[in-house]
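FAQ

Q: What does a record look like?
A: Structure on top, sequence underneath. For example:
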């Protein structure tokens, strides 16, 4: 990890030596989250970055989390005999609470699992294992984890809620909840809990607007997902030297398409299979890799077999030390999303993809967060959700034009270096925590 002190992490356009010194935001902090390594995807990497960053600054940070399982529905093999207690990961003390794992993808199963984590946290609080802290940071999902944070903050302390998903909107948009009463209850819970924290951090302006529409009145700040641009960087692209479009001949594989992440409802992976089917009718020189895990893996494999998709392979996730290598294996990345979920979350993988200088095609409606990000970065292609013809056309355009792939990849790399590097984003977040704690 980087060795800069907090005062050496300037905002954009400001040199580090021009900044006044900054102090540690709090001598002690608790990070409450269901997501933490060794989980490989989702919010776990960002939670680890934040905890390690605070620890490195001298803030004694303890993470309270559950046993790792995401994106599957079983506890990781190496933790199945874990009896509870704590471990130390990269210098951070991690307390593992025993809570239910959502065996099904339904909203009710997830709510029960999240309630189980809340109860486990309350028991840890009553037994003295989870002591009140002057700074509490909680991650949503789940909103019940944020509720736990409200109960373990010291009387004169500060509580910051980091929102990666707005659960009521996701559940309703993906038809995970059929009861209007349950959706209303979820919205009431989100509004009530979030109005009791000191600061809310969201990923996009659109998410902030959604929370305001729910009736949340507390301070909200936008802090985007960050990416470690020192660890994730491009390979030298193998493209022709001329500046015109490079028409790739048709060897056995002209390009490799890669999806990497969770196999879940909100990812809309059916769009990739429909695109693959159409692509197979037009060419046989493109390989598609679906790399990940999750509740829908078996369904995906059955559908691939039923459609006789010869060039589609399903593989498992790679370990963290192979992340960069795995990302650069894809010439073009695929980032499908169900449109109903796009307003309530943004896929963190896109910043890693841009960091390694790879282009991607995503499905997004006009004026959605991803659509606006494309307008700002110029680093990828957006097509309408569930438009197989447009998806296929965009993919083929990139397959046949290596110069365009190179141009989009270079734009993406510059964009994340300027706006989403870990030192820039985390440095700004910690300065905000410092100011909040000093009030």
């Amino acid at each position: 990890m980087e060795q800069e002190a907090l005062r050496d992490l300037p905002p954009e356009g400001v040199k580090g030596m021009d900044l006044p010194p900054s102090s540690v935001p709090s001598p002690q902090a608790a990070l409450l989250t269901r997501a933490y390594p060794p989980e490989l995807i989702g919010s776990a990497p960002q939670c680890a970055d934040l905890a390690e960053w605070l620890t490195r600054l001298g803030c004694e940070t303890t993470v309270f989390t559950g046993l790792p399982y995401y994106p599957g529905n079983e506890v990781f093999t190496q933790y199945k005999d874990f009896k509870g207690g704590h471990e130390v990961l990269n210098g951070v003390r991690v307390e593992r609470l025993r809570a239910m794992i959502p065996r099904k993808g339904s909203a009710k199963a997830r709510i029960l699992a999240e309630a189980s984590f809340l109860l486990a946290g309350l028991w840890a609080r009553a037994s003295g294992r989870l002591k009140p802290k002057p700074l509490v940071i909680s991650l949503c999902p789940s909103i019940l984890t944020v509720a736990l944070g409200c109960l373990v903050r010291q009387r004169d302390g500060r509580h910051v809620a980091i929102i990666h998903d707005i659960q009521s909107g996701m559940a309703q948009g993906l038809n995970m909840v059929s009861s209007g009463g349950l959706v209303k209850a979820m919205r009431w819970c989100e509004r009530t809990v979030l109005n009791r924290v000191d600061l809310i951090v969201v990923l996009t302006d659109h998410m902030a607007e959604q929370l305001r529409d729910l009736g949340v009145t507390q301070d909200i700040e936008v802090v985007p997902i960050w990416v470690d641009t020192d660890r994730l960087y491009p390979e030298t692209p193998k493209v022709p030297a001329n500046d015109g479009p490079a028409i790739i001949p048709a060897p056995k594989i002209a390009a490799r398409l890669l999806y990497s992440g969770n196999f879940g409802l909100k990812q809309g992976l059916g769009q990739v299979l429909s695109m693959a089917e159409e692509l197979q009718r037009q060419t046989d020189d493109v390989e598609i890799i679906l790399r990940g895990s999750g509740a829908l893996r078996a369904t995906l494999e059955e559908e691939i077999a039923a459609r006789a998709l010869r060039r589609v392979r399903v593989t498992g996730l790679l370990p963290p030390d192979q992340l960069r290598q795995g990302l650069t294996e894809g010439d073009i990345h695929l980032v499908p999303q169900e449109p109903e979920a796009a307003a309530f979350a943004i896929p963190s993988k896109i910043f890693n993809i841009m960091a390694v200088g790879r282009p991607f095609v995503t499905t997004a409606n006009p004026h959605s967060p991803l659509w606006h990000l494309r307008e700002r970065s110029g680093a990828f292609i957006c097509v309408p959700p569930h438009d197989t013809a447009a998806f296929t056309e965009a993919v083929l355009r990139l397959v046949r034009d290596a110069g365009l792939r190179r141009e989009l990849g270079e734009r993406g790399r510059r964009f994340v270096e300027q706006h989403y590097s870990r030192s820039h984003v985390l440095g700004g977040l910690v300065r905000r925590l410092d100011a909040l704690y000093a009030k």
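Q: Is there anything notable about this one?
A: DSSP finds 15 helices and 14 strands in the chain.
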